[in-house]
Design a protein that fits this description.
It is a single chain. 48% of the residues lie in helices and 15% in strands. By secondary structure, the chain is α/β, with parallel strands linked by helices. The protein has two domains: 217 residues, Rossmann fold; 91 residues, Rossmann fold (3-Layer(aba) Sandwich).
């Protein structure tokens, strides 16, 4: 059965997740770029999760959650709500285990991400683009099918699975001075925090967040979880509000939030492509944007950056890159 969301995951859960998903998830490469090192003034090591299955780190957590289910529970299937990457990840993990998968998707989701969900055989359920509508639709599917909810970022097994990306990075580079990850709902960030506390307690954790969806920054500043932010950012993967369990884990890790605007993010996305030869989606590029916008924090340091995904809307690229040109004019 799934663990309770009220139970904080531990590093032991990350290790268990690594063993559970080893036969299914990819060991993604760690890239570097002398050009980007020179621009940033730091030694950067990029964990390339855009090369993970379904093109995002999300497969780690979804795979762990699906394969942690007992046989009777798994037979009733799983359900989630997702704007794209988590839904695609859960759909593929479910396909690998041979169980049903239902994904509630909000209006306005990126078409290429919906196609990835459908390609793995999941059933799509559409709803309005707000959290209450997503949760209501998930509850209805659960009532109708008996499926288990695999939340995009608060399910314990999901958090533990996401922590395996940092586990691989810190195993290869145990001497990192800092690690930067994108933050939306907080699954990747919380899993990273668990791993860092165990393997690299002196490493500093930074959370890159869009300025137009800065609920994490506001929550850390006030010491209470902020849910009143209406997201306005091109980073579609980072529009979700942070979960309570994620907030607790991240506060315990002394993480620091760095906000970046959309123009900075697209400029970083373009640099990653032109200088680092890494094509990533905007949500992923926030980590480099945060380093470049806060160079004094990272100068001379050895920095790990988790590139969270590469499911780019190719049709939108010209318009996105035009934003950088217009802002520089």
């Amino acid at each position: 059965m799934m663990s309770s969301n009220d139970t904080l995951p531990r590093f032991a859960d990350v290790l268990a997740a690594a063993a559970r998903i080893a036969a299914h998830a990819r060991l993604t490469p760690i890239a570097s770029s002398r050009s980007l090192d020179a621009i940033s003034g730091a030694r950067l090591h990029f964990k390339c999760e855009q090369l993970q299955r379904v093109g995002a780190f999300k497969f780690r957590g979804a795979c762990n959650a699906v394969f942690a289910l007992d046989a009777d529970t798994a037979a009733r299937g799983v359900v989630t709500h997702s704007s794209g990457n988590h839904g695609a990840a859960l759909a593929l993990a479910s396909q690998l285990r041979g169980i049903a998968c239902h994904v509630v998707v909000p209006e306005g989701a990126v078409r290429s991400k919906l196609e990835a969900i459908e390609a793995s055989g999941a059933v799509l359920h559409r709803c309005a683009a707000n959290l209450s509508a997503r949760e209501a639709a998930c509850a209805q599917v659960q009532a109708d099918t008996g499926a288990t909810l695999v939340h995009p970022y608060t399910t314990t097994e999901v958090i533990a699975g996401q922590g395996t990306a940092a586990l691989e990075l810190l195993t290869a580079h145990p001497d990192l001075d800092a690690l930067v990850v994108p933050v939306g709902g907080g699954g990747l960030a919380a899993g990273t925090a668990l791993t860092m506390q165990a393997l690299a307690p002196n490493c500093r954790l930074f959370l890159a967040e869009p300025a137009g969806a800065d609920d994490a920054a506001q929550s850390f500043a006030r010491g209470v979880l902020e849910h009143d932010v209406i997201p306005d950012t091109i980073c579609d993967g980072l529009r979700a509000g942070m979960g309570a369990i994620n907030f607790e884990l991240l506060r315990n890790s002394n993480a620091r939030v760095l906000t970046v605007d959309d123009a900075q993010t697209i400029a970083a996305m373009r640099l990653l492509w032109s200088r680092g030869k890494q094509l990533v989606e905007p949500s992923s590029a926030t980590v480099l944007a945060a380093v470049l916008a806060n160079s004094a924090l990272f100068e001379g340091s050895k920095v790990g950056l988790i590139l969270s995904g590469g499911n780019v809307d190719l049709d939108a690229l010209p318009k996105l890159f035009a934003l950088v040109t217009a802002s520089a004019a």
